[in-house]
Amino acid sequence: MPSSRRKFIQQTAFAALATASIPTWLKAAPKKKMITGIQLYSVRDEMKANPVDTLKAIANMGYQYVEHANYINRKFYGYSAADFKKLLADHGLTMLSGHTVMGPSHWDANKKDFSDSWKYTVEDAAIVGQELVISPWLDDSLRKTADDLKRYMEIFNLSGKLCNKWGMRFGYHNHNFEFTQKLGNETVYEIILNNTDPTLVTQQLDFGNLYGTGADALAIVKNNPGRFVSMHVKDEIMNAKGTGYESTVLGKGVQVVKEIIDQGKKTGGTMHFIIEQEAYQGMAPLECIKQDLAMMKQWGY
């Protein structure tokens, strides 16, 4: 087969896949659906030991949506994108978002292009059915100075354009350093918000992670309307050592969870409410996320 013919077929196939992967919320914006899901990091040990039984248990609790935190060598929890999508579908589950760190190695400054590994990340996210591709970390080397970080925010915007080509959006998930580290007169989070295009880069606000930093999650949502398509819904409690905070079952901690998610729904543009619990105070993780979902339903989500 001539190389020109082979190239045309490949391009056509990729274009067809990209079109087929465009989610309903992009094809018909007024029909966007608010969802409540679970970040699978909440049951990381269970997913590592037996993903099939864990997903079955999650579905039996009443969850319909999950978010991944495991994508290695083009596989989600050991499954190819197509196979993991089928596994989820077998249990009535859908995965609309996922966490994969976009780091310095994913951008080739000489070629001014993304690495193949990042392109595969986006492609596989589309195949599995994601709407959001979320990077949950910012390497230290990218935030040594305000100018360094501002330059990298241009790469964030380019990643947004790449994701858009596949019918998805690119997003960033915060921890706590974004609110405690200042570069010049701005915090890292302020630089991220002020130097990314909201149409290309959304934010997944983890308001549990920022608890105890002095940042006010409710004020952040109020002051930045429409910036938070997704939230990590997380309550916080003082840890046993009394040295800081850790996550707990929703409604049992000190964070004003319902006020924040209500504000996200009202002005934040939030459509994805993703439960995450990383510490369990002696309870079984699966029991924790069952109680988390019950509380979200009680709150009307």
Q: Can you walk me through this structure?
A:
Helix 4 packs parallel to helix 12 and helix 5 (81-90) packs parallel to helix 6. The chain contains 12 helices and 16 strands. An 8-stranded parallel barrel has the order 1-2-5-8-9-12-13-16, surrounded by 5 helices. Strands 3-4 form a two-stranded antiparallel ribbon. The chain has a two-stranded antiparallel sheet with strand order 6-7. The protein is α/β, with parallel strands linked by helices and 301 residues long. The chain has a single domain (33-298), classed as TIM Barrel (Alpha-Beta Barrel), CATH 3.20.20. It starts with a helix and ends with a helix.
Task: Give the SSE layout.
Layout: H1 3-21, H2 24-27, E1 35-39, H3 44-49, H4 51-61, E2 65-68, E3 71-72, E4 75-76, H5 81-90, E5 94-99, E6 107-108, E7 113-114, H6 116-128, E8 132-135, H7 146-165, E9 169-173, H8 177-180, E10 182-183, E11 186-187, H9 188-194, E12 201-206, H10 217-223, E13 230-233, E14 235-238, E15 245-248, H11 257-268, E16 272-275, H12 285-298
Parallel strand pairs: 1-2, 1-16, 2-5, 5-8, 8-9, 9-12, 12-13, 13-16
Antiparallel strand pairs: 3-4, 6-7, 10-11, 14-15
Largest sheet, in brief, is:
8 strands, parallel, barrel
Q: How confident overall, as mean pLDDT?
A: 92
Alpha-beta content class:
alpha/beta
End-to-end Cα distance, whole Å, is: 54 Å
Looking at the structure, the CATH topology is: TIM Barrel
CATH architecture: Alpha-Beta Barrel
Helix/strand order, N-terminal first: HHEHHEEEHEEEHEHEHEEHEHEEEHEH
* Residues in helix, %: 40-55%
* Radius of gyration, in angstroms, nearest whole number: 19 Å
In the CATH hierarchy, what is the class? Alpha Beta
